[in-house]
Every structure is written in structure tokens, then in C-alpha cells.
Amino acid sequence: MIDFENVGLRYGLGREVLSDMTFRIDPGSFQFLTGSSGAGKTSLLRLMLMSINPSRGRIKLFSKETSQIPRRDIPFIRRKLGVVFQDFRLLDHLTTYENVALPLRVRGKTELNYRSDVTDLLKWVGLGERIHAHPPVLSGGEKQRAAIARALIGQPEILLADEPTGNVDPSLAQRLLRLFIELNRSGTSVVIATHDMALMDQFDARRLVVNEGRLQIYE
What pTM, to 2 d.p., does this model score? Predict the structure, then answer.
């Protein structure tokens, strides 16, 4: 589903921040993406999302080389991705419910078809009492859970999550991770970027470790 071949990335004229990245994300796979702060995890996720382009090498997404995908087609391909950003990217003028439902509205679905799914998912992530609240009055952890629910509601083919448990307590972090595992069992490929070694040690999963701009893979 994602295929990197000798990918390098530099910003401007500086040195490469990522070098010789060669790996695959297979359908139905689950992996952690880890490394020290500043190692390049977020840059690697941005490459997967096509929000930035590599300086060299080749990236394929759903068997299509990203450099050859017409700009008009990129939004449709991104609909196959569920993404959890560190900065949440919730829309302040929308309620929690409306933020989570937004991906479905963009696809043309009617509220009658998705209302119960959105409500049930919000209850599952502990936001059942915050459905009508707006992001400015939510805590950091509540915003994180809303962002996760929004990424999951469309049952994406690939989930890319950048530190999705960074603003919640350990018990809720485990609960959210179990949700990701259940999503994976239903067929979604999952990539979770995290530096939480204790959390990773509780689950047997592939690890992609970024170290000084290079990748080590532990199956």
C-alpha cells in the first residue's frame, strides 16, 4: 500500500533529514514508527501523506507513483487515509460531533446514515458528554480523542497517527491502542508514530526505527 525506494528528503539547501528510506507498508499490517525527538518521524509521515515531496527516490501509494499523480486526484486518494496530527487540526467553529462527521459529509453522506456511527464512536473514546462542545473548550486530551475519532470514522485503508496517545493518561492510551488494533483486524493498515517505549513493549508489532535520518526495521 505504501512503497518507499531509496527516498531522501532535505529542506532547502540543508543536509538530508531522511536518507535512503526503503520499506513497504503491506495491506493489513500494523507497525510502530519510533525514534528520538527530531529524528524525522513526522517528516516520514508527511511523505506518506503526500503533503511534501521527496528530494530523491520513489514513493508509491496504492500502487501509484506519487510524483505522477495529478494534483486533482490527490484529495480522492487521501480519502483512503485516516490521519491523526499532533496539532489535532480541529475546526473551532464546528462541534465535536461535526468535526468527527466532517470526512463523511465531504464524501456526500447524509446525516441520517452516519449519525449513530459518529455518536457511538464518540462515546467509545469517552466524549459522549462533549458531543456539542467546540474545540476551544476541550482539553488537550479531549481534542486528541476527537482527532482520533475523526480519523477512524471513515474506516480508512491506512491509518497514520502521529503520537496519538501523547495527551491522554496511560489507561486511556491502552484503550485507544486497542481500538487501533481492532481497526487493523478489520483490514486497515496502521502506522503509529510514538516515542512511548513502555506502550510499544505491551504489543508485539513491527517497529520502524528512525535514527539520525536512517531507518532500521525490527520485525
Answer: 0.88
What residues have CB less than 8 Å from 120, skipping those under 6 apart? none
Number of helices (H), then strands (E), belonging to the chain: the values are: 7, 10
The third-level CATH classification (topology) of the domain covering 26-51+74-218 is Rossmann fold (3.40.50)
- Where do the domains of the chain lie? 26-51+74-218
CA dist 13 → 5, 16, 58 (Å): 22, 9, 20
DSSP 194: -
Dmax (CA) for the chain in angstroms is 52
The distance from CA 22 to its chain's CA centroid, rounded to whole angstroms, is 20
**Which residues on adjacent β-strands are paired with residue 211?**
214
**Residue with C-alpha cell 488494533?**
181
pLDDT tens per residue across span 9-67: 999 888 999 999 999 999 999 999 999 888 888 899 999 999 999 999 999 999 999 99
- Report the C-alpha gap between 193 and 184 in whole angstroms: 15
**Residue 75 φ/ψ, nearest 5 degrees:** -60, -35
> Measured between alpha carbons, how far is 187 from 72 in angstroms, rounded to an integer?
27
Element (H, E) at 218: strand 214-218
Strand-pair category, 64-65 with 56-61: antiparallel
**How many angstroms separate the CA atoms of 197 and 62, rounded?**
30
Percent of the chain as helix, strand, coil, to the nearest 5:
35, 25, 35
